[in-house]
Every structure is written in structure tokens, then in C-alpha cells.
From TrEMBL:
<feature type="domain" description="Glycosyl transferase family 1">
    <location>
        <begin position="231"/>
        <end position="366"/>
    </location>
</feature>
<protein>
    <submittedName>
        <fullName>Glycosyltransferase family 4 protein</fullName>
    </submittedName>
</protein>
<keyword id="KW-0808">Transferase</keyword>
<dbReference type="Pfam" id="PF00534">
    <property type="entry name" value="Glycos_transf_1"/>
</dbReference>
<dbReference type="InterPro" id="IPR001296">
    <property type="entry name" value="Glyco_trans_1"/>
</dbReference>
<dbReference type="InterPro" id="IPR028098">
    <property type="entry name" value="Glyco_trans_4-like_N"/>
</dbReference>
<feature type="domain" description="Glycosyltransferase subfamily 4-like N-terminal">
    <location>
        <begin position="52"/>
        <end position="225"/>
    </location>
</feature>
<dbReference type="InterPro" id="IPR050194">
    <property type="entry name" value="Glycosyltransferase_grp1"/>
</dbReference>
<dbReference type="Pfam" id="PF13439">
    <property type="entry name" value="Glyco_transf_4"/>
</dbReference>
<dbReference type="GO" id="GO:0016757">
    <property type="term" value="F:glycosyltransferase activity"/>
</dbReference>
Length: 414
């Protein structure tokens, strides 16, 4: 058989090297897939059962990559945003287990198996949104895997004993047995990630401690445009968020009860009965509220009380976008957001006494605080800043990853 001149080949001199021969059509596709929208993108999110900070990041990732498919362990479509409902969402086999949407945390030992069942071989870029076990997915060898880490799994690492003590004896026994295995899996699967992105310096330090990996810090997106500076002096202190032990809402309730200050509590959780039992007449519990109610209270409060330790903490930035100061415990992401004297105060000890002293210091200068300066500070954490920084990082990594993968392929023995 006689071959005609191979006009479809880019250069006949390639036959003199060990480089693979590629048709011009494939060369063109490889070089322009990103620009033409052909880049196949998968976003892996731990679970979709509510709309909290992690899900707000997921929404922004979907806006950055509208062609992306979402993979998640469990999804409750009744509790996610209308925007996410329009996306192509694929769930794991855990979704078929009765009660999974409500009791998903009890299925933690099964989650590694469920994640590794996702077939991501068709995807060029995989973005894992990590707080539960999401980074453990298996990608194609030449795909780029970027992990946006909200937090290494607290319940098997630094918050293990807090979560364990809150369980009945059967749960404590099971957690003691399964946690070492999950830790080993969690560390091992960190090597499946090409680039870690942390939502704060605090989380970056935990990634170094638990995974021995460096991370680029890109703060999560806050929809600052959804908030506006309120009018007049605030009417009450505000606590908002889950009423769970590690967030320490009891400190806010006790402090306002002792000081006789008005406190509005927005949120629900297992601590609600206890908090009501220690609250005085100046404390009002509103339970779970829709976004417009939360936004209204943020614009009218004297200050947001933030006594817990959060990996980043979007709520303080939302309060600042409303022109209201934040009184926060000096730990976690609050060190990076409540970072200027004109936007709030941080207290060094996670105690009622420390918060009372901070409230007294705040009230002495309350009339001199400029709400517009506070809002200006919040814009450092806007969605636009997040998109610019993350898209720039991914663009850079795609370029270097593609070049590196090609180099490895050329050097591979024949």
C-alpha cells in the first residue's frame, strides 16, 4: 500500500523524533478547547442539602464554568437555590438509601466508596469543593484537579473530640473505629490534588498540618452587592448562624442577658432548647429565617456578635457589607476579615467575660464608627475579586499542566 504525502500531519520532521503524531484537527482542538467552550469541567461538591457558605462558592464556580457538571454525594433539591436546580447534578448511590438526605452525616464511612464510583474520565478540569470528603475522586491521569478547600474534615481532625462527645455511646464507638481509617484515606487522597486553594490563611495552615501540602489562599466570594448600609443607629445586637456547640452562641446569649442588652438570634440547631433556658427577657429567638429577613436584621443591628471559630466566616463580611461592625473571637478567618480597627473588635478569650468587655469598649466609640468605611472594607471579599483571582490561577495552572503533561508524554519510553 502506497501512502500519499501526509498533508494532514503538522510536520514530517516529527517522524525523526519520539513525539506522538497528531492530526491537525486534534491539534487545533487541543489548542483552542478552552476558548471554544470545549473544555470539559466537573465540579465535585461534598453534599447539597442546604444553602450555606460552601454552596455560595459552588454557585460562583458554576457561573465561572457554565458548561460544568456537578457531582455530589447527596442532593435535596427542595433546599437548594433555583440557580443550582438548573444545573446538571449527578448524585452517588447514597442518594438511593432511605433517609440519606437527612442523615447523610451518618454515612461518612461509605462516602469514600461513593466518591470513587464517580466516572470523571471525560473531564479535562475537575474542581473539588472540599469540606466533607470531595477531593478523593479519581480523575483522568492528564486532567487538572484543583481543590477549593473550605476546611479539612473537622469531624476526623481538630474537632474530632467535640463531635464525638456529642454522640450517644454507639455513635462514639463507631466513630472511634472508623475515624483512623478515614484519616488515612483523607491523607492519601490529598496526593490526587494538583493544586490546593484555601479559603483563608487559617485553613491553609490546617492543610499544611494534616496533608503536608501548600495552598494558595483565595477568600470565598461574598455577594456584597446584595447588602446596603442601613440607616440610623443599630437597635440590637445580632447572632446568626447554626446553633451548634462549636459556634458558641451561648457566649452571645449569656453576655447580652447579663448586660441587659437586646439580642436577636437567627438560626436553628440542637442547642436551641439550652439557649432558651439560659436566656433573659432581652433575648429574642427567631429561628430559621429567609435571606431577606437576615439581610434586614444585618442592616439594623448595632453589631454582629461572632463568638465561634470559623474557617473563614462569610456572615461577618455580610454584616460589614451592611455597614455594621463585628465583635468576633480572635481566631480563624475573623483575623483576616475583622482586620481593621474601624470595622470591629476581636476578643482574645472565648468567654462571656471577654465579650462583655469588648461590648463595653465598642459602646464607648459606637457613635464615631463610619458605616461606609466598614462597607468599603468588605469589598475586598467581593465575588468579583474571587472570580478574578481564581480564574487567573486556573488559567495559569491549565497552561503549565498541559505543557508538563505533554513533556512527560514525549519522554515516556517507547
Amino acid at each position: 500500500m502506497t501512502l500519499k504525502a501526509a498533508t494532514s500531519l503538522p510536520d514530517a520532521r516529527l517522524f525523526l523524533t519520539d513525539a506522538p503524531v497528531m492530526a491537525k484537527r486534534r491539534v487545533t482542538e487541543a489548542g483552542t478547547s478552552k476558548e471554544s467552550g470545549q473544555l470539559r469541567v466537573a465540579i465535585v461538591h461534598y453534599w447539597l442539602v442546604s444553602m450555606r457558605g460552601g454552596e455560595k462558592v459552588l454557585e460562583e464556580l458554576c457561573r465561572m464554568f457554565p458548561q460544568a457538571d456537578i457531582f455530589t454525594l447527596v442532593c435535596n433539591r427542595d433546599r437548594i437555590s433555583d440557580f443550582l436546580k438548573t444545573r446538571n447534578i449527578r448524585t452517588s448511590f447514597l442518594q438511593k438509601i432511605p433517609g440519606a438526605q437527612r442523615h447523610y452525616t451518618k454515612m461518612l464511612p461509605l462516602m469514600p466508596f461513593a466518591l470513587e464510583q464517580f466516572d470523571l474520565q471525560d473531564y479535562d478540569l475537575v474542581l473539588s469543593s472540599e469540606s466533607g470528603p470531595a477531593k478523593g475522586i479519581i480523575t483522568r491521569a492528564d486532567a487538572l484537579h484543583v481543590c477549593y478547600c473550605h476546611s479539612p474534615m473537622r469531624y476526623i481532625w481538630d474537632q474530632f473530640h467535640v463531635y464525638r462527645h456529642g454522640l450517644p455511646w454507639v455513635g462514639r464507638a463507631l466513630m472511634s473505629i472508623t475515624a483512623p481509617v478515614l484519616r488515612a484515606w483523607d491523607v492519601t487522597t490529598s496526593s490526587r490534588v494538583d493544586v490546593f486553594v484555601a479559603n483563608s490563611e487559617y485553613v491553609a495552615s490546617r492543610i499544611r498540618r494534616f496533608y503536608d501540602r501548600d495552598a494558595v489562599v483565595i477568600h470565598p466570594p461574598v455577594a456584597t452587592d446584595d447588602f446596603a448600609v442601613g440607616k440610623g443607629k443599630g437597635e440590637f445586637y445580632l447572632y446568626a448562624g447554626q446553633l451548634t456547640t462549636y459556634k458558641r452562641p451561648d457566649i452571645a446569649v449569656r453576655a447580652c442577658t447579663e448586660a441587659g442588652r437586646k439580642l436577636v438570634v437567627i438560626g436553628e440547631g440542637e442547642q436551641l432548647p439550652y439557649l432558651k433556658s439560659i436566656a433573659g427577657p432581652t433575648v429574642q429567638f427567631l429561628g430559621h429565617q429567609p435571606f431577606n429577613v437576615l439581610r434586614d436584621h444585618l442592616s439594623r443591628c448595632r453589631a454582629l456578635l461572632f463568638p465561634g471559630t470559623e474557617d473563614f466566616g462569610i456572615l461577618p463580611v455580610e454584616a460589614m457589607a451592611s455597614g455594621r461592625p463585628v465583635l468576633a473571637f480572635d481566631a480563624g478567618g475573623a483575623r483576616e476579615t475583622v482586620s481593621a480597627p474601624q470595622v470591629g473588635f476581636r476578643f482574645a478569650e472565648q468567654t462571656t467575660e471577654a465579650l462583655l468587655e469588648t461590648m463595653a469598649a465598642f459602646e464607648e466609640v459606637e457613635d464615631d464608627i463610619d458605616p461606609h468605611a466598614i462597607r468599603a472594607h468588605s469589598l475586598k471579599f467581593s465575588s468579583a475579586v474571587f472570580r478574578d483571582r481564581l480564574s487567573g490561577l486556573i488559567e495559569q495552572q491549565l497552561s503549565s499542566h498541559r505543557d508538563g503533561a505533554a513533556g512527560v508524554f514525549r519522554r515516556r519510553p517507547g
